[in-house]
Description:
The protein is about 40% helix and about 15% strand. The strands form 3 sheets. A 7-stranded mixed beta sheet has the order 4-10-9-8-7-5-6, with helices on both faces. Strands 11, 12, 13, 15 and 16 form a 5-stranded antiparallel beta sheet that branches. It has a 4-stranded mixed beta sheet with strand order 1-2-3-14.
Amino acid sequence: MTPQPNPEVGTAVKAADRAHVFHSWSAQELIDPLAVAGAQGSYFWDYDGRRYLDFASGLVYTNIGYQHPAVVAAIQEQAARMTTFAPAFAVEARSEAARLIAERTPGDLDRIFFTNGGADAVEHALRMARLHTGRPKVLSAYRSYHGGTQQAVNVTGDPRRWASDTGTAGVVHFWAPFLYRSRFYAETEEQECARALEHLETTIAFEGPSTIAAIILETIPGTAGIMPPPAGYLAGVRELCDRHGILLVLDEVMAGFGRTGTWFAAGLYDVVPDLLTFAKGVNSGYVPLGGVAISGAVAETFARRPYPGGLTYSGHPLACAAAVATINVMEEEGIVGNAAALGASVVGPGLRALAERHPCVGEVRGVGMFWALELVRDRETREPLVPYNATGEANAPMAAFAAAAKEAGIWPFVNMNRTHVVPPCNVSEAELKEGLAALDAALTVADGHVA
């Protein structure tokens, strides 16, 4: 894994990208994408031979790292045997992937509808919920992200929704618990939980319970800030849903498949949803794949009534073969346990030690390989290091932090005033300590912007 510099090729790759590739979520003339030459394990490198420890896991999906040989071999074997086949047929890789996923989902979520990724998993889960209940509305939280397609971006609670939100999607947003920036004037986790549930209960009452098909929540919100809910909150939401005949949809696109030190984060809270969405870590992003795990009651709705939805590439054999291999690798190599153990023994203590040294760190929170540092200008007032949804000069402090992290040899996941620590779930202790040292250097730069 020694990067070999080849700047001429890198220049050509970059030129073709800038001439022809239209990048997501970006002003095209204001971005400068890194040309990547290769990746292995927890690292990737550019054409100048510079190597980065990937503390972002791509977009929080390379849960087993890059180029795991067993998964690469499984994709190659499947390609030699059957590269593709229509979704209406029973195919070995598809059937086995569904079986392995169903074995790990909570409760009776035993039927798997495959999609191409997380956003369309959310689209189909909400369609199923509306058809099952005959109700039009969906409730979702602010400080959430559920995908970029039309329904998924409307249930999203961050600014990426704004340009596509016409107010006609049947979506109502509410505040979920987040003690550090409480909307309920809470002082303890118990208060935050109780008041957030009261707020949700009131929202349901004023919207009309008989109009609400589903409540969708990220089990642990990801891009919005990695905010583990307080004890009892998800159980409380489950009770509200049961009381009013509302379906609970948990979005585990980012939190699932070992990221939180469990197969699914719902297991941390002993809550079983009616529908569960997944993607990303199901095959470490090696081939696009997502899906919806469906409860028996919802599946029964479509036992003799056709489900009006599908995708050409649903359960694509290459993607499913990658999922089978990934799940087996995670079992055989103890990757879920590794995320839990090193999260508790290395990442958590390491980040808390950084917080003690750096006044820019307002809060450390997370579990497994799913952590966030809240960066602030003032610990007392909790003023964010940059304003909400800052761009340009207003975002300069976070841009300086990110640049310092890359200079120190890690690729960070930065969103608004936070940096997330989300390395592969099979990262080693030595790699984590290398990354924490690099974060230490980058946070020193952020300290320079503390009031």
